[in-house]
C-alpha cells in the first residue's frame, strides 16, 4: 500500500528510520572491509620466508565467503598462485586481468611506530602495516569490489580474473614471469591488465602505461690482503670506492636533471642506489674481496648498450680484478597506449572524469608484474587509488587511511564494471549508426578489432567489418 494512509509526521519518521538503517548497514559493511584488510596484513608474507600458504588459505576463504569461484595454481613448488574468476556474460571476449602480489619486503621493527604486521589503526584512522600501499590494499580492494558487483547483480560482459601471485618483490621470475608462459594463462584470454601504481602525495591519480627497466647488479672487487695496521697496495676497497663513487656521481647528475626540469618525473631519469655492501673477515684484516650491490632503474629513453659500456669503463679505470655481474637485467621498451584512441585508456579516462578525479599518465618509477604482460603484447596499466598520502612503499611506517582504502574499493567498482562492459558501449553505438553492423559482427567476429579490445577508433572497428 506504499505510504498511503500514513500521517506526514509518520512518513518523515519512517524515512529517518530507513536512512539510519542504511547508514548503520554501510558502517557495518565498511568495518567488515577494514577488518578483512587487517587480517591480510597480519599474514607474514615478508621475505626472505613469505608464508604464501597462509595467504592463499585466507584469500580463498574470503573468495568463498563472497561466492566468488577460485582455484589454486602451482607451477613451481612453494610458489602458489590464486586465481579468482567472475565469468562474464560473453566469456569469449578478452578478459580483464587484475594482478596483485602477495609478498612484501622486510620491515625493521625498531623504525616503526607500531608492529608492521599487526594492521594497527591509530587515532587518526591510519592503518599501519607492511603492504598497506604495496600492495595488499589493492588485492583486497579487487575482492571487495568484485563482491559488491556480484551483490548488486551488475551485468558484466567480459570475464574478470583476480590474480594473487608470489615473488614480485624478488623479481617475479618464479611468479608472474612464470605464469605468463603457461597454457593456463593463455586460456584466460586476457585483453587488459591492471596492476599496482604508487601513492600520490598530491590530489592527482597517476596511471602508469610503461615502466623503467630494472637492473640489479653486483660489483665484486678483489685485491691484496694483509694486516690493517699497514698500507696494503692494490686493495679491493680502493677499487670498489672508485666505482661506487662513479655510481653515486651518476645518481646526483640524474637527480639534478629531475630537479631542474619540471616536465620530468622520476620515471624519466636513471636512478641508482647502493643497497648492500658486503665483505671482510675481521677488524684488523684488510679484505681480499668486497662487493657492492646496486639497484638501477633505466628509463625508456636510455641507450641500454651505452649505459652498460659506461659501467665497464668505470671498472677498467678502477684497475684489475674488479668485475660486475647482473643479478637481474631487463630492457623494457614496450608501452601501453595512453591516448583516447585506445579502447581501454578511453574507458579508464571516462571513469575518472565521471568520478571527477584528476589524473595523468606517467612512466612508472619502479618495476611491477605488468612488465611481463606488456612484453607479451597485452595492454597493462599500473594504478593505486591512493592520493594525498606520502609514498611509503618499502619505507618505515607504511600506512593508508581507512577512508582512502574504502574510497578505493568504490573506485574499483566503477573501473571494473566499465572495463568489463567497454566493448558493449561501442557495439551499441555502432549498431545504432550502422544497421548492418550486428549481422557482420556475428558472421565475422574475429575480423572485428573491438572483439580483441585493440581498437584504436570507432572507424578502425568498422573498417575490418566492411572488408569482411
Automatic annotation (TrEMBL):
Peptidase M20 dimerisation domain residues are 209-319
**Signal sequence bounds:** 1-23
The cofactor named in the record is: Zn(2+)
Superkingdom in the source lineage? Eukaryota
Can you tell me which residues bind Zn(2+) 2? 134, 169, 394
* Coiled coil (residue ranges): none
- Pfam family example for this protein? Peptidase_M20
The protein here is known as: N-acyl-aliphatic-L-amino acid amidohydrolase
The active site annotation covers 103, 168 (proton acceptor)
The reply to whether Cell membrane figures as a keyword in the UniProt entry is no
Give its E.C. classification number. 3.5.1.14
> What Gene Ontology cellular-component terms does the record carry?
cytoplasm
Q: Would you kindly state one Gene Ontology biological process term found in this protein's UniProt entry? A: amino acid metabolic process
Q: Which family does it belong to?
A: Belongs to the peptidase M20A family.
Show the Gene3D superfamilies listed in the entry.
1.10.150.900, 3.30.70.360, Zn peptidases
Name where it's found.
Cytoplasm
Q: How is the cofactor bound?
A: Binds 2 Zn(2+) ions per subunit.
Keywords tagged on the record: Cytoplasm, Hydrolase, Metal-binding, Signal, Zinc
Q: Does the keyword field hold Zinc?
A: yes
Q: Which GO terms describe its molecular function?
A: aminoacylase activity; metal ion binding
Protein residues bound to Zn(2+) 1: 101, 134, 196
